[in-house]
Task: structure prediction
Amino acid sequence: MNTGTGKVIQERRRLLGLSQPALATAIGVSSRQITRYESEEQSPTLPVAIRLADALQISLAELAGIVDNRVDLAGRWWAAWQKAAKDSAHVEIAPVTIRHEGDHLLLDTDAETPAAEDDPVTQVRGEMRVWDGEALTGWMRGMDIAFGIGVVYFALHPQGAHAVGSWTTKADGDGLVRGWSALAREKSDAEKLLLELLRTDGTVESWPGTARSA
Result:
């Protein structure tokens, strides 16, 4: 999938907290040249592209807008969610381990974290499917929400380090309830994303930096 070099440069620069002048200085061009690249008025030459990719901490393929849909999501993650839609201040966070097999994901409580028998929050489990490396859909249970099991949808960051979405489940009476949710490799990133979803009602203004080793 090609997302456009200019868009990649602009989004990655902002993600890293770099101004146009700062990026220009790092690769040895003028600020005006960065504007030309981001607006796709002009494409960088190969030597400049190599310096751009290095400064933006991405590969040349990623700089060209070619996203690898075969992202590996296996490993240790942190799940964060809004416990109830009417209680936006109540945020829950729990470690989970993801097994990635083909297009399918299996989520379970992190084996390294002891789970209390009477604590439903620590017993998070779920199953999801990956759609074109861009979205996750499925179900999760044990989040200590209204009905105890809900369907989930996550938008996946192209680099596979974060995902944001929401859960929906049956209400105590008739009807449905919903809340925001997030997944990240780092606990602080999961919490940051969820709080941003709550504050903006679903808009992610800036993704956290590239995930560090778990």
Observations:
- Residues 111-120, 210-214 have pLDDT under 50 and may be disordered.
- Strands lie at 75-84, 87-101, 104-109, 125-131, 135-141, 149-156, 162-170, 176-184.
- The radius of gyration is 19 Å.
- The chain has two domains: 5-63, 75-200.
